[in-house]
Write a structure and sequence with these properties.
Layout: H1 14-31, E1 33-37, H2 38-57, H3 60-67, H4 73-86, E2 95-103, E3 110-116, H5 124-134, H6 143-184, H7 186-245
Antiparallel strand pairs: 1-3, 2-3
Length: 246
């Protein structure tokens, strides 16, 4: 059974491994980052974050516990003054591992960088902040607030609509009356045109009737003149016979 065998031995003895971790943690606290193999980077992150937690606690007991592991005054100042203030609102995750993508010459071990967040060598945090500001999504309003605001707007809009309804009806009545007047205006013109047309027709018909009457009068006068001629003709015949008798 594999009890009490957590962690990577890194191919060295316990004392060597402990000294190596202490030196690496001290270097990271002083310089902000350190380059090592990927396996060592994963192992050093555990004691590093534990020391930062002691630094955030900040009391005498925390200082004594940190001094058991860190053996540098500069590292202690960074731990209990700078890093404690920087990470006071952050709950864990104080370091970052960056794979270099290249292997060490000799044993071909994969290399990586262990870096403290917010250090002088940290450039990824600033890039992430810029990208987060650009891609910051808009906060979605709750549906309850939207529904309440819509109800309030609807309630406030109903009396305004009720007040504007009579005004609209009056304007509609005025518009309809104007439209009827405009439509009725051409009607008298049509009546006048019809009257003028009928007057022309009557004027054409009246001369025709007068002509008929004149023709009838002429016929009557001719008829009256014909008997008069007939009467004159026998008178001339009588006068001629009387002359012969004489």
């Amino acid at each position: 059974m594999r009890h009490l065998k957590a962690g990577n031995r890194l191919g060295v003895t316990t004392s060597h491994r402990r000294a190596m971790m202490r030196n690496m943690v001290t270097s990271i606290l002083e310089h902000g980052q350190v380059t090592c193999t990927l396996a060592r980077a994963k192992e050093v992150r555990k004691p590093l974050e534990k020391m930062i937690s002691w630094g955030k606690q900040g009391d005498l007991h925390a200082r004594r516990q940190a001094l058991r592991f860190v053996k540098s005054k500069e590292a202690m100042l960074q731990l209990f003054e700078v890093l404690a203030e920087r990470f006071k609102d952050r709950q864990g995750g104080y370091s970052r591992i960056i794979k270099l993508g290249k292997n060490r010459l000799g044993d071909n071990s994969e290399m990586a960088i262990v870096q403290l967040l917010g250090s002088d060598a940290d450039q990824l945090s600033s890039l992430k902040e810029k990208s987060s500001k650009k891609k910051q999504p808009k906060k979605k309003d709750s549906t309850v607030l939207k529904e309440v605001s819509e109800e309030v707007q609807a309630d406030s809009a109903t009396p305004e609509k009720a007040e504007s309804a009579p005004e609209k009806s009056e304007t509609e009545v005025v518009e309809t009356t104007e439209n009827t007047e405009v439509e009725a205006a051409p009607a008298p013109k049509d009546d006048a045109e019809e009257k003028s047309a009928t007057a022309e027709v009557k004027a054409e018909e009246v001369p025709a009737e007068s002509e008929v009457v004149a023709e009838e009068e002429k016929a009557e006068t001719k008829a009256e003149a014909a008997p008069a001629k007939n009467e004159t003709v026998p008178a001339t015949e009588d006068s001629a016979s009387e002359k012969k008798a004489d």
